[in-house]
Amino acid sequence: MASVSGPSKRSTATALPVERDNKRMRTSADDVEGNALNSAVSDEQLPSEIESASSVPPTSDMTEAKKPICATLVRGHRPVWAMKRQGLCDAQPYFKAFEGGLYSKDNTVTGLYISKYSEPRDFLGRNVLITCVGGNRDVKAGTRSEEMPRNTSMVKNSIGLPVSVVIGNQHPKFKDLNLGPLVPQNAVFVELGTFRIIDVWKEMVQPKGVNDPYPVWKIKLHTIRTDLKPWYWIDEQVPDDTTSQVVPITKEDNKQLCEEQECSVCGKTSLKVFANSPWVCLQEKCSEFFKDNSNYLDQNGSDGEGLRYTEGFLNKAERYQGIMKGLPEELPQMFQPLSISIALGGTQYGTEKELRGGFTCPSCGCCNSQVYWDYNECGNCRCTQELTPRPYPMHKIENETNADIKKLRKRLGSKYDGATMSMVKSHVTKFTKTADNGSKLFIYMIQGQEKLVGTLVLERPTNSLKKSHCGADDLLDTIQNEGAKMMFRRNPSRCPGSSSELLTRHYQSNWGVQYDFGVRPIPSVPFTEAPDVVLKSLAQLTDAGKRALEYSQMIALKEQYNLVDGSTLMNQYEPYNELLALAYRETDAIGWHDDGEKQVKGVISTASLGSPGTMELCMKKARDKPVLKLHVRHGDVVTMCDTRLQAHTEHRVGVNGVRRYAVTSRTIDIDYYKDPKRAQKLGTSVQQLEASGSFPVRARDFSYGNTALGV
Fold first, then answer.
1. 15 touches 2 (CB < 8 A)
2. 274-310: per-residue pLDDT in tens?
3. Which CATH superfamily is domain 69-235+316-336 in?
4. pTM of the entire predicted model
């Protein structure tokens, strides 16, 4: 089910069947959008070259109002914008570069981003855009190297094709654009629209303060409709002194329409591109390239002003030399209809890899990442879309698991024991045991420099245990059917709060005592307010954690292992007071990390629910050489014993199916936060932390094996 609502936190409105089939819900903002676009364009007919493209019905639903066409918005959708780069990249398919200024697919450029780092003679005119191929930049020196940027050949391969262009708010011309009511002031990234790549050539530039000229590869683009003005353009615009080409194109320039001349050295012709300087050869391999009388062309023209392009060159709509590709029938525009991932009667469950993208807000045009597990929310206007994934059935989980097992048996043969995919014997020794409850234990003794740094125990329960109260099946069913109660969301993993902020690939929620990890602490909900499934999970994890520690201690003593300095392996079990719940979509993962925060003590247990996955362990500073790789199935509980294991190793987790959940419990040392500065970082007190880890009376209703909570 999907529905769209306004600024309220969550919407409970139910969409009618016809609305579910539609891919976009009309909002009052559509009328504002239509009026704003209408003021920017004329009613002229489409050129024949793109007439068929513009007549293709828009990809949004049939209730969407038909919008006027302008120079760059050739399909009639509004321009999109974003506050965060990841939101922009997640919400549409044409520009998905989290770094850099170019995005391509199949060796073809589909998106360009222009912002702070411009070069002399970069130009943004009414229907013409000139920018540079990025790369090879020395930011500190303010120059570029002599080599051709690696993306240049890709740009050349795209000449004649459409490309979506995004401008950043640090671009010198950004403040001169007429963004009107379509884009708010908090926009950092704004879609200018669809352009066509016309030509690529090499020049020499020399910005102020730089001693010597250096090469750049320029790109010229035209708006798709050159007979109309773009939505952001003001015809009376005064040239901006911060841009490189500050002199308006004059009538004198108009007389120099695409003059060309043959080079006396290389014998090839080049256009005269500058209005206020002599002709120069633009053949990049020629010894006289960009030279006048054997010296590089002066960056100032004969009139004392900076070099400026002729109007004829700017307006030339054909590639000077070589083949120019034709426009495709369907032209891109960044606006994407509000998708409904769970179509009525469909076969998808909501966490498939093709559904993992972001969305364009139909109300304000803001591009957003998916932040919440069960609904979308626009970061600008708070418009929401219900998006609760359908429960992923057990038979599909079993099919995924059996497919993995078949592949592993084929690859490993008799070496495959059901859990171990690979193991470096110089670092890992394996023991297998059968617990009193019938579970099979894979116990891995991890060594570094001939000392035991800790153990990793994988417990595989019997089918009857998985089906028992608080067993894996019970946990999975409850989480899937009451997903909203788990409050899953993605949190910042880099540059929190900035336009460059990146989110975790997986979804998280924290319960009990607050666990301070990552780039910014995430809030935690006290156990007294937690849904029952959190308490059920704690019962199972406590039972497995105690058993893992007991068997690890027994083997360490029997085999007379030499423990690493500072080992906590032989310490008593410390009751868990925290639970971190994670939800994974298809292809989600957690990269290399450790759980070695100073406030964590005791053992750490994780139950795997749903699709199978892999867990790898490596020694610190040797990520390219994992010492252990495990096949983790639904119901498996992995426990890491000894805090020194976190100091010497790292681990990562991948998902091999459509949906996986993991619940992990730790013991947070409350005494660590008796230092007021540490508690202040979390915005809490020691008393509040202690209270948040206390079990409610109802916790006594939940038991697993020999463990009952609150008893």
1. yes
2. 999 999 999 999 999 999 999 999 999 999 999 999 9
3. SRA-YDG (2.30.280.10)
4. 0.84
- Residue 583's closest CA among 452, 413, 391? 391
CB 243 within 8 A of CB 309: no
CA distance 130 to 96: 21
For residues 167, 170, 173, 175, the Cα torsion angle rounded to the nearest 10 degrees is 100
User: Residue 221 corresponds to which tokens in the numbers above?
Assistant: 């683009």
662-680 pLDDT, tens digit each = 999 999 999 998 888 888 8
**Integer-rounded Cα radius of gyration of the chain:** 31
Task: Report whether pLDDT(341) > 80.
Answer: no
pLDDT reading at 444 higher than 70: yes
β-strand partners of 375: 386
Q: Contact 608/537 with Cβ under 8 angstroms?
A: no
pLDDT of residue 543: 98
Mean pLDDT of the chain: 86
Q: What stretches of 263-309 adopt beta strand conformation (E)? A: 269-271, 291-292, 295-296
Nearest to 356 by CA among 371, 334, 346, 337: 371
637 neighbors 546 (Cβ within 8 angstroms): no
Amino acid identity, residue 110?
T
Domain spans of the chain, in order of start? 69-235+316-336, 259-309, 337-390, 442-492+506-708
For residue 711, name the pLDDT band (cuts at 50, 70, 90): low
Buried b (16+ CB within 10 A) or exposed e, 369-403: bbbbbbbbbbbbbbbbbbbbbbebeeeebeebbee
CB 491 within 8 Å of CB 474: no
Record the tokens describing residue 85, joined without a space.
Answer: 């780069």
| Type and span of the H or E element at 251 | helix 251-254
pLDDT of residue 321: 86
For every residue of 404-472, DSSP letters joined together read HHHHHHHHHGGG--SSEEEE-TTTEEEEEEE-TTS-EEEEEEEEETTEEEEEEEEEE--HHHHTSTTSH
What is the mean pLDDT of the segment spanning 601-616?
98
φ, ψ for residue 342, nearest 5 deg: -110, 85
CB 628 within 8 A of CB 614: no
Long-range contacts of 342-346 (CB under 8 A, 24+ apart): 342/1, 342/2, 342/387, 342/389, 342/390, 343/20, 343/21, 344/17, 344/20, 344/21
CA angle, 38 then 40 then 42, to 5°:
75
pLDDT at 517: 81
Give residue 67's pLDDT band: very low, low, confident or very high (50, 70, 90). low
For 442-492+506-708, CATH gives: 2.60.120.590
Q: What is the DSSP string of 96-119?
A: --SSSSEEEETTEEEEEEE-S---
Which residues lie closer than 8 Å to 42 by C-beta, 6 or more apart? 227, 228
What is the four-CA torsion angle of 60, 359, 131, 253, rounded to 10 degrees? Answer: 30
